[in-house]
Design a protein that fits this description.
By secondary structure, the protein is an alpha/beta fold. The chain has a single domain, classed as Uracil-DNA glycosylase-like domain (Uracil-DNA Glycosylase, subunit E). The chain contains eight helices and six strands, in the order αββααβαβααββαα. The radius of gyration is 24 Å and the shape is globular.
């Protein structure tokens, strides 16, 4: 269950046996998170669904397939980001997580944010955006702009399951999916504006390099030669209203992309 190495793996191991709230009684396993432990980009969803509870990884059902597709459209590999949820155990019958369950599980999410230290956080759906931004405003009004969050940038968008439920099989435009694609294009632009990682300083001019090995005296064995050293909120056009959110419709909905 542990993802990554070091402290993140230790936190994942501790979370895997968590019994702090009622959700533990109905889970198959804890769904801690998946992806690069040094990712610049982190996605935070709501809660595990049926498929995630069985497999132990977030966003592996139809919603996860759509998320992977949206990432590929902006040339980002899923393995280069980190994905997790606000709560780590599946709520019964995929119901909404309750406020006390979110509060109890918040410590695990805070540890992931601290240890992974992403530059950009994308929230997926109402619960993730409201939890991290500390607001009751809905996702339809929150999306379309960025927010400062713990010295990072937070970009809210719809939950992929909302786009799956809104699919009309080509009869009319899927406005939720259209809004998500607009948000992912904004995400690509945002990532492109991030400053590059700092370079290692170049050696000072005239700095002495490593000493050359001394030649042994005739008739003596010398030592073996050593091997060589190796921003504020930015508004965009308001988004059209979207249908209510939830998790994981049937996989037949995937025909939308």
């Amino acid at each position: 269950m542990a993802e990554g190495t070091g402290d993140l793996g230790q936190v994942a191991a501790e979370a895997s046996t968590c019994t702090r709230c009622r959700l533990h009684s109905g889970r198959t396993q804890v769904v801690f998170g998946q992806g690069s432990p040094t990712a610049d980009l982190m996605f935070v969803g709501e809660a595990p669904g049926f498929h995630e509870d069985r497999k132990g990884y977030p966003f592996v059902g139809p919603s996860g397939q759509l998320l992977t597709r949206l990432l590929s459209e902006i040339d980002i590999r899923r393995e280069d980001v980190y994905i997790c949820n606000v709560v780590k155990c599946r709520p019964p019958s995929n119901r909404d997580p309750q406020p006390d369950e979110i509060a109890t599980c918040r410590g695990w999410l805070d540890a992931q944010l601290r240890l992974i230290d992403p530059k950009v956080v994308v929230t997926l759906g109402n619960f993730a955006a409201r939890t991290l931004l500390g607001t009751t405003t809905g996702i339809t009004r929150l999306r379309g702009r960025t927010y400062e969050f713990q010295d990072r940038v937070l970009l809210p968008t719809f939950h992929p399951s909302a786009a799956l439920r809104a699919d009309t099989s080509g009869r009319t435009e899927n406005r939720t999916l259209k809004g998500m694609r607009e948000d992912f294009q904004a995400l690509a632009k945002l990532l492109g504006e991030l400053p590059p990682p700092p370079r290692e300083p170049a050696p000072a001019p005239g700095a002495a390099g490593p000493a050359a090995p001394r030649e042994p005296s005739p008739g003596t064995a010398g030592p073996a030669a050593a091997p060589p050293a190796s921003a504020p909120p930015r508004a965009t056009a308001p988004a059209p209203p979207a249908p209510p959110e939830g998790r994981e419709p049937g996989s037949e909905q995937l025909g939308l992309f």
